[in-house]
Structures are given as C-alpha cells and as structure tokens.
Amino acid sequence: MSHSLGNEVSHLRGIDALRAVAAMLVVFYHMVLLPNMQIPVYLNVVKHHFGVGVPLFYALSGFVLAYGYLDKLNERSQVLKFYLRRFFRIAPLFYSMLIVWLVASRIKWGTFPGSFHDLVLNASLLFGLVPGKHESIVWAGWSIGVEVLFYLLFPVVAVLARSLRSGVLALALAILVSSSFFTVASSLDIGSYAYMNIITHLPNFLCGVLAFLIWRHLGFRRSAWQGSILLVLSLLGMLAVIYVPSAYRVLMLASGVRLDLYIWGLLFIGLILSLCMFPNRIIVNQFSIGMGRDSFSLYLWHPLIIVMLVDFYAWIGGRLGGGVLNFLACALVTVCAIRLVSYYSFRLIETPGMKLGKRLTNAQ
C-alpha cells in the first residue's frame, strides 16, 4: 500500500495531536522552571520529565520528513526544493521572534542580547553548531538550531535509511555515536551544549524515521485494537520510566550516557505508531489538532509569554498558595494566552511563509 503526497505531506491527525502534546509538555516545564514556581512534591514530574517534549518534537519531525520525502529526494533539484521549503517553514517565524526578543530585551532589561556577530549567527540558523552560542538569542531557540541541522542532514538519511533494516542499523549506530559523544562532551567545559546538539539528539530523530519505516512495512495499517494496545503499552512504559524506582536505577547504570533519552525515543516509536493506526479521540480531537497545527508558534512564543506572566503567577500564588490549584490556575492562564497568540502567529507569519516557499519551489 502506498500513500500519495504530491509535494505536500498528507494530513496525519495523530501527528498533529502529538505535536500539541510535545508543545504543552515544554510549556508546563518552563512555566514551573522560569519563575521558580513552588509546586507540590507529587508534581515534580513536571520539573524532571516534561522537558522530554523537545525529543518528542524531534521524533515527530523525523517521522513527518520520512513520510513526506523519503522516496522523493533522488535528484539535486528535489533536494534544493526540499531545503527551500524547509527554510520558509522555519525562517519567517524564527526571524520574527528574533526581532521580538531584541525589542523585548531592550524594553525589559535595557540591553540587546548578544553581539552583532551573535545576531549574524542567529540569522544564519547555524548557531546549533557553535558551543556557547547554541542557545540562541530567541529563548528556547536551541532546539530550532538542532532542527535546522536535521533538515540539512535529512537527504543523507533518505539515501542511507530507506529500508526497515537500514533504519534499524542507522538508529543503532546513532545511539552508539550519541552516547560516546555525550560522555566525552559532558567532561568538557562546554556547558549545556553536551545535551543541546544534533549528535546527542540524532537517535530521537531517527526513531521518528524508523516509526515511518515500520508503519510502511506494515502496509500503513489502520487498526483500532492494535493501535489501542500499542498506545497502552507505550504509556505504561513511560509511566515505568517516570515512577518505577528500579527502572530509573537501571537507566542510570551507564554513567555519563543518556540511556533514558534513548529509551524515551523507543517509546516514542510506539506512541507514534499507535496514533497512526488508530487516532483515538481522547488524544486526537479538534482542540489538540488545532494546537498541533500551531505548535511551532506556540513553542517559540511561550517563553516570552511566561516571562510576561511571572507577576500574575505570583498574584495567583498569593491567593491559592503553592498547591495543585495554583498550578492548574497558572496553567489555564498560560495555555489561554499562548493559544491566542499562536493562533494569530500561525496565520499572519507561518502561513504566508509556507505559501511563499511553495510558490518559489513550484516556479522552479
């Protein structure tokens, strides 16, 4: 069974919904960490595990690129069109946020972030290659720097990992290289770059590619009961990683290796496949699909909105205390504000950028 895409990735509702999940995990993670919000101990899972939303984004990116382009990059012209479309998918919003953060930093802190050279590096979108500059002028932008490098790498992946067997081998090799790199990088004086780089996260991206290869091998199967079982197993695996002490101790046996990151990647394969087989309405609904569609805007706008809401969080905390009601109230305000901004950001910035990229590639 094949799928017809033309030049566009066909609509997968489950993937859109998972984008929303990934985005909200990161939003709640930063909502707690940026203002140092006091939360009950049983909500510490937000601090310790919700950052996994970024690796989930990478896995989803790998799946979508494989689904849309794995068999379509056979000629130089096709590769150039791919790069052009990816540029106009990322650049318009990122450049807009770059301007927003320059203005916001000047207003709030009285200075511009970084130097002229930092600005040029951010404009090149290649800051993910430079330790110390990788976190970007745009807050949370480090992941965009890594994503751009995945785009640059993908035509090579498309050549080397076209079959299920080659995809498995590529993932195994990536885990070996990633773990070795992380071990060495952690011993160097390069700060967060040991984690925030393309090599460390390459297995997550390839897990998404492998999820597509598995689904294709299954004939793009649709099955409510198989999808449901796979979803339950994936969620149970995630809960075990988070809440079972013995599972956590096993993951920590390999000192200096992000074994937990690779386990999450494998669980993401199951999660992606489950919703491809059966996009159940609990996760896949009109609200999550809409948020998933706008997730790039949601992701890039959320740190600024959280910073703007810090005093309001304090006001809410003063009235509700530091319990679960305080967390839920702050989460509700944050989601409403970010959802509103991302809705218009997608339509006013992202959509025109994507249309321009499409026109330019169609004109070639």
Automatic annotation (TrEMBL):
GO terms for molecular function: acyltransferase activity, transferring groups other than amino-acyl groups. The chain crosses the membrane at residues 21-43, 49-70, 90-109, 137-161, 168-188, 194-215, 227-249, 261-284, 296-316, 322-346. The keyword Ion transport does not apply. Keywords: Membrane, Transmembrane, Transmembrane helix. Residues 13-337 form the Acyltransferase domain. InterPro entries: Acyl_transf_3_dom, Acyltransferase_3. It comes from the Bacteria. One of its GO terms (biological process) is polysaccharide biosynthetic process. GO terms for cellular component: membrane. This is Acyltransferase 3 domain-containing protein.
